[in-house]
Design goal:
Blueprint (H helix, E strand, L loop, with lengths): L12 H7 L9 H11 L12 H7 L4 H15 L3 H35 L3 E6 L2 E6 L8 E5 L7 E13 L1 H4 L5 E2 L17 E2 L4 E13 L5 H8 L9 H30 L4 H15 L4 H18 L2 E3 L3 H6 L4 E4 L11 E7 L2 E3 L9 H12 L4 E3 L2 E3 L2 H11 L5 H7 L4 E3 L7 E8 L2 E8 L1 H5 L2 E6 L2 E4 L2 H16 L3 E9 L14 E10 L6 H10 L3 E5 L4 H11 L7 E4 H6 L2 H7 L3 E5 L3 H13 L4 E5 L5 H6 L2 E5 L5 H6 L2 E3 L4 H41 L8 H11 L1 H8 L22 H28 L2 H22 L6 H4 L5 H19 L1 H6 L7 H28 L1
């Protein structure tokens, strides 16, 4: 049996440690490196992918390619060798480009996956450190707590109320209670309570685990080995564009058939009639459209990744442009997530943290409580764990108390981990030889469980006056935007077993207030959001007063707004919530159910909602929201798994940047589609005009292939690189139900296409009068190509080129010049002229081409200038 899949659950913890040549102090860095080299990274082998040859072959299945192959056959039968060579070359080039794009997409996806790869907390060299989960090896000591995704299979050594969701392996949706006892007989996977498995989620408690198997040598690895490949779904925009292209192709095929029959009726030779029909088909189908949409989206996701917004799901790029409500967590997103202790309330007085005196037993007990009901660590100056907890450790450093020394001196006997429902954490230690329960938590919850108070004069009963003073001090701290934790203890019998019932009858020690100041950029980001028509809403587990104070500082909470607690929300009916939803800016002390209800209420109003979160309890709301945003630094693996976007800097301002990017990506895609389709409309109208007027075919198929696949692609990509306009965030969020091809959009396509077609057909008539049909075809081809190159400047923005400037997008200038160079090579290099069926033109004919090509752009720009002045 493979090492990772041994019956580890039938062995004791000590036996497992011995067999894996490790201890509870963990492996050394050298041992871990050697094992990693021998065992390989902790990753699953991907399913069998299509070979490059398979991908290449699949490029020929497309309807467009079949039409092009038909065009090549017809050209060959008509004796047009040069045209046949060009069409075949274009087909092969298109297949190569499609294959290269597929390979690049795979690499891009892999790089984005690596940006959001999970981490694991392990003990190495006796120290708690955080490593990339791919680097864990058998024998590593893994530390698990609520919110973690289990990085590898492992045997539990120490268990502290651990509960794990193993639905990804067993299909059972309920959480599984774990323990560290040895099982006596073989058991199915779901009953191996002393094991944790890769891919499962820790929903409660904590545990110390020795890793027994990694990568494919895990239970989930067994499942992965049975999978052949996974297909990625197309985004809604890609699907709608594919549907549009296929419908367009079918319409064009019908029109082509009618044109072919009309040509035969006029007694045009069969091959000429076929060439006419094929020319129309090639002119109509936007060959580069699908590729351009994908390229612009890919560039958008890469740009967002550079700005710390990692898009897990491509459809999130499209949805971002429609976001009208952002429900944001406070801690770490709107604030710096750098908690520092400000003041301590103890013995009826408020003091600075550096005034704590270790020689005072009252102060000493508060320090014990702060360090020992604490799972964080500070390693090489970096805090690992909850920011609130390592702020407490930093506080003890100010009075020269080493938390490492205290933890080495006193060992934790039992614990009740913190959870968002109880809002408490309790641990049991021997303090000065007496079994003692230490507790920290929310003041309002803890105060109800206190019976005594400790002062410098000793322990006495808690009076109503004491209670009132504690509440008053808590409120004073909160009103100043400080987060407050209460600390208490109680001495117990040596046989006392720690349970939820233990969290009563406490003796009050003191309050510790901390501040997590708003990020400097938060105020501006909130202002930008409001300017963009986006409603920012704060949802936090903090006290209502604290949350409101921070919300006021950064501009979320304004005069007349409401702040609502989770309890108040629970008391509201859906009708009441719907009435108050637009007036409520702050939700405090909320539960996971509250978050889902808030998101649902906004969605009922037709809003597209973005929700941020970092904890296990945020995952349902992240799934419910249109755009779930997880925190990359403090976020749990559960929240990252549920989200469609991850903020690698945990910053609210990054969400606003991502929204702007999403709007810009959608706008650029729409502009690129406008450019491609208006140009194709010009080609269709030109061919239809000559067909109806019984004129010669204006374009050879190679002309249209040259335009659609070479000169058009470059400006379209350049349009996709257009930077965001200054007023992009001043526009209202886009209606997600509104498609790209609106009536206004289609009218614009038809008008712009007609202008370009008019110029093209004018050049065609000039060519017919001054030369042969070959000359007329060349003049029409060159005019259409140049007109479309000039038209690229029109499609960059709704504003005139004079307002946005040429230099704001150098790619568009480069694309224009590249297109002109390609056209010049075809016109003036004899070999290329023959290949592309182009005849030599004189100076006056070339001047006419340039004049007619630029006129549509001049007219469109004049119309934009007039419209911009009137707006």
């Amino acid at each position: 049996m493979e090492e990772g899949l041994k019956d580890w659950y039938l062995k004791s913890g000590e036996e497992v440690l011995t067999e894996l040549h490790t201890t509870k102090e963990g492996l050394s860095s050298e041992e871990a490196a050697a094992l990693l080299a021998r065992k390989g990274e902790n990753v699953l082998s991907e399913g069998r992918k299509k070979s490059t040859l398979q991908v290449f072959a699949e490029q020929f299945k497309d309807l467009l390619v079949i039409i092009l192959i038909a065009a090549a056959v017809i050209s060959m039968l008509s004796g047009n060798t040069e045209s046949t060579v060009v069409i075949v070359a274009v087909i092969i080039l298109n297949a190569i480009l499609g294959t290269v794009q597929h390979e690049k997409a795979q690499k891009s996806l892999a790089s984005l996956k690596s940006l959001s790869s999970p981490t694991a907390k392990v003990i190495r060299d006796g120290q708690k450190i955080e490593v990339d989960s791919r680097k864990v090896v058998p024998g590593d000591i893994l530390l698990l707590e609520a919110g973690d995704m289990v990085a590898a299979d492992g045997r539990i050594l120490n268990n502290y109320s651990l509960q794990v969701n193993e639905s990804s392996l067993t299909g059972e949706s309920t959480n599984v209670d774990k323990d560290n006892s040895m099982l006596e007989e073989e058991a199915p996977l779901a009953d191996r309570t002393n094991m944790v498995y890769s891919g499962s989620l820790v929903t409660y408690g904590r545990a110390v685990v020795v890793i027994t198997g990694t990568g494919m040598n895990t239970e989930i690895g067994k499942i992965a080995s049975l999978m052949s490949e996974t297909k990625e779904k197309k985004t809604p925009l890609q699907s709608s564009m594919d549907q549009f292209s296929s419908r367009l192709a079918m319409v064009i095929m019908v029109i082509c058939a009618l044109v072919f029959l009309l040509s035969l009726y006029r007694e045009m030779p069969l091959l000429d009639s076929l060439m006419f029909a094929v020319a129309l088909a090639v002119a109509a189908i936007p060959e580069a459209l699908s590729s351009i949409v994908t390229i612009v989206q890919a560039m958008g996701t890469q740009r967002m990744a550079k700005e710390h917004a990692i898009i897990k799901d491509l459809k999130a790029v499209e949805s971002l442009g429609c976001v009208s409500v952002i429900c944001s967590d406070k801690t770490g997103t709107l604030t710096q997530n750098k908690m520092t202790v400000q003041e301590v309330y103890i013995d009826g007085k408020t003091i600075k943290p550096e005034e704590l005196d270790i020689s005072s037993q009252l102060h000493r007990y508060l320090i014990y409580d702060a360090v020992l009901t604490n799972d964080s660590a500070i390693v090489e100056g970096k805090g690992i764990g909850d920011p609130t907890e390592f702020a407490l450790l930093e506080m003890t450093g100010k009075v020269n108390v080493s938390h490492h020394y205290l933890r080495d001196l006193m060992h934790r006997l039992e614990e009740l981990p913190f959870d968002s429902d109880r809002k408490l954490m309790s641990t049991k230690y021997h303090l000065h030889g007496v079994p003692t329960v230490l507790t920290k938590g929310a003041v309002d919850v803890l105060l109800d469980r206190m019976t005594h108070i400790r002062t410098s004069e000793g322990v006495r009963e808690l009076t109503p006056k004491d209670r009132e003073e504690i509440l008053h001090q808590n409120q004073r701290f909160s009103e100043n935007g400080l987060r407050v934790l209460g600390f208490a203890y109680k001495e117990v019998d040596k046989d006392h077993v720690l349970s939820l019932n233990s969290e009563n009858g406490f003796t009050f020690l003191g309050l510790i207030s901390m501040v997590d100041p708003p990020r400097e950029e938060s105020k501006e980001a909130v202002s930008d959001a409001k300017r963009a028509g986006i409603r920012p809403v704060m949802i936090t587990g903090d006290h209502k007063i604290t949350a409101t104070a921070i919300a006021k500082q950064i501009g979320i909470f304004e005069e007349g707004d409401l702040a609502v607690t989770g309890a108040e929300l629970d008391a509201m009916s859906d009708e009441e919530l719907d009435r108050n939803i637009t007036k409520t800016s702050v939700y405090a002390r909320v539960s996971p159910e509250n978050k889902i209800r808030i998101v649902d209420a906004w969605q009922r109003r037709g809003n597209i909602v973005s929700m941020t979160g970092d904890g296990v309890n945020d995952a349902p709301a992240l799934k419910k929201a249109d755009i779930g945003v997880a925190m990359g630094i403090t976020g749990t693996e559960v929240s990252k798994d549920a989200a469609s976007m991850i903020l690698s800097d945990d910053n609210f301002a990054t969400i606003i940047k991502a929204v702007a990017n999403g709007r810009n990506v959608y706008r650029n895609i729409k502009n690129a589609i406008q450019f491609l389709l208006s140009g194709n409309t010009a080609g269709i109208l030109s061919v239809l005009y000559t067909s109806v007027m019984a004129l010669p075919v204006p374009f050879a198929p190679v002309h249209l292939l040259f335009i659609n696949l070479l000169t058009d692609s470059l400006p379209a990509i350049a349009i996709g690189m257009e930077p965001a306009e200054h007023d992009l965030l001043e526009e209202k969020p886009r209606d997600p139900k509104e498609g790209i091809l609106t009536r206004e959009f289609l009218l614009k396509l038809l008008l712009q296409g007609a202008l370009i077609a008019a110029g093209t057909m004018t050049a065609f008539h000039v060519g017919l009068k001054t030369g042969s049909s070959a000359t007329a075809s060349t003049m029409a081809f060159c005019t259409l190509t140049l007109s479309r190159l000039f038209h690229g400047f029109n499609c960059r923005s709704k504003y005139s080129i004079f307002k946005i400037g040429f230099s704001t997008n150098w790619y568009s200038l480069g694309a224009f010049l590249a297109g002109v160079v390609l056209l010049s090579l075809v016109m003036f290099v004899p070999l290329l002229s023959r290949l592309f069926s182009v005849t030599a033109l004189n100076g006056s004919q070339i001047a006419i081409i340039y004049g007619l090509a630029v006129i549509p752009t001049i007219l469109i720009q004049m119309a934009k200038v007039i419209k911009n002045k009137n707006e």
